[in-house]
Specification:
Helices cover about 15% and strands about 45% of the residues. By secondary structure, the chain is an alpha+beta fold. The protein has a single domain, classed as Nucleoside Triphosphate Pyrophosphohydrolase (Alpha-Beta Complex), CATH 3.90.79.
């Protein structure tokens, strides 16, 4: 994974999926954590962002997604355990296979990342900020018509 500590900062490259259905967006979090994110993970060296999205869904949920166009490039500055982080996030439009149990919006869905348990759920796009989705600027961007690649800078 592309994640390195430099000059007291953690720098990482992340790729994630924007999966939308009927004005709902699929989000996920590590169980027991308050922060939700769009599903994805850190890019491995030599891997494209789209390949990362497909790999992460396979590893975490055992599902093959179709990863499409790049929607957002997010420069995200935040702290984790008082350590400053600088993350470049690549957010792609993606779709689940027809008939996937993950399309059920009435319940949450379990996933795994290594030995960590994950929770996936659908949230109406108007409620993303209240649900705790980060980066926060994505909540607003996802409520707008998606046209072309958008560049977002988020400083927490």
């Amino acid at each position: 994974m592309i994640s390195v500590d430099l000059a007291g900062h953690r720098f990482q490259l992340r790729a994630a999926a924007v999966i939308a259905a009927d004005d709902f967006i699929l989000i996920h979090r590590m169980e027991g954590h308050d922060v939700w994110a769009l599903p994805g993970g850190r890019v491995d060296p030599g891997e494209s962002g789209q390949q990362t999205v497909v790999r992460e869904f396979g590893e975490e949920l055992g599902v093959t997604v179709q990863c499409g166009a790049l929607l957002f490039v997010v420069e995200n500055f935040f702290n984790v355990d008082d350590k400053p982080c600088h993350e470049i996030g690549l957010y792609f439009r993606a779709t689940l296979p027809a008939g996937s149990p993950l399309l059920d919006k009435t319940r949450s869905h379990p996933g795994v990342e290594g030995r960590h348990r994950l929770e996936f759920k659908w949230v109406h796009k108007s409620a993303l900020a209240d649900a705790g989705l980060r980066p926060l600027t994505l909540c607003q961007a996802l409520c707008q018509p998606l046209a072309g690649v958008q560049h977002i800078v988020q400083r927490d």
